[in-house]
Amino acid sequence: MKSRRLAILLVVVGLGLGATLLRDQVPVGDARVAHHPTGVELVQAEAGGKLENERNTMQIVQKYEPGLVFISTEQDVTTQDPFAWMYGGSDSQTQVQRGVGSGFFVNRAGDILTNYHVVAGEAGGAANRITIRVMGRSQSVTAKVIGMAPQYDLALIRPTGLDAKLIRPIPLGNSDALKAGQKTIAMGAPFGLDFSVSEGIVSSVARQIPIGFGAGGQGITQKAIQTDAAINPGNSGGPLLDSAGNVIGINTQIYSPSGQSTGVGQSAGVGFAIPVNVAKNLLPRLQAAQGRMISAPQLGIVPGLLAQTQRGGMPVGVSALSAAARQQWQLPENGILVGAVTPGLPAAKAGLRGGTQERQFRGGQVTLGGDVIVAVNGKAVDGLEDLQAVLIDRKQGDSVTLKVWNAGKTRDVKVTLDATAFR
């Protein structure tokens, strides 16, 4: 069964400015008191409800906005000019690329959680210079990267020389308990307008979208929180809070039809946040990363079906083969063909078997004779990204159940994610 995915344009926010700010004109209807015998009471109740909501928002902003951080980055980018010799100049020039984003304190040590794409440099590492500024202070201080997790689009940074009195952590909530319709408050720096606040609701608690930066720059499908709170370029890495003032998500992307023509995303009322529970599971690893990158859990599987592309072999699912090829090689309709397993990693420990016969065919390469993973925790899979989507929020000690096909027979294999899965 060939998996079908609905492609939507997700414009990564926070990497640049230059868009035009728009204000929607929203008509306000009149209260029709005369048409209802108790209209006065209804209007008063409605007004009281608004004031109560306003009071709640104002209290949260006043209490937790000091924990918000405005992030600026600078990256030295070298460009080549093949015609520079004609003007007596150098054929290479160094330009400074600047970016802005948001973040927030997560502990008293001053650790700041943000998006990976906010602090990433051109080559995938950290930007050359990162500075942060807290509310009420005009002076910025430098910050260093503690850990980066590109596949999750998360990073942890720490300021240098910041007064400890200015470190105001925002409490982390429980994103698993969210319900559609709950209030949301987004804080950040849209279009560089630092320390801005917008309000909305949770539109969906389980939207599946590509988040992060995996192999080839592609995101890994993950569960995200959808909100209609206004999120724009510069909001990236900022917190999404609930009505109790707890962080429930980290703002990361928007759906922006206008970005297709302008190249700069603008809010269309559909924003996405990384669930805070994913970040909480990841925090210990980020804090221990010592400036390095960390990756999602790995089972230790080498794909056994590769399609030939200009960049080399690209892993694909079994459904990419023609029906005739699947019949000839006695393969199921969908699944991840296991070409080999890495000794000492969870897949090998669980008894998964790699292939024994390597074949070349027009358009690619296949390794036959091994297991085919057709489902994970009861959900059908047809590519490494499907498997990774299940593993992405797992932590050490968790287990997953693989449905494995081999030579026409299926079996269930329980795989435990021990320390080797997180190396």
From TrEMBL:
InterPro entries on file: Chloro_Bact_Ser_Proteases, PDZ, PDZ_sf, Peptidase_S1_PA, Peptidase_S1_PA_chymotrypsin, Peptidase_S1C
Keywords, sorted A to Z: Hydrolase, Protease
SUPFAM superfamilies to which the protein is assigned, alphabetical: PDZ domain-like, Trypsin-like serine proteases
Record EC number: 3.4.21.-
EC class of the enzyme, as a word: hydrolase
Domain PDZ: 306-408
GO BP terms, alphabetized: proteolysis
Gene3D superfamilies, alphabetized: 2.30.42.10, Trypsin-like serine proteases (2.40.10.10)
Classification via PROSITE patterns: PDZ (PS50106)
GO molecular function: peptidase activity
Protein family membership: Belongs to the peptidase S1C family.
The protein's name in its UniProt record: S1C family serine protease
Protein's organism: Deinococcus antarcticus
Source lineage: Bacteria, Thermotogati, Deinococcota, Deinococci, Deinococcales
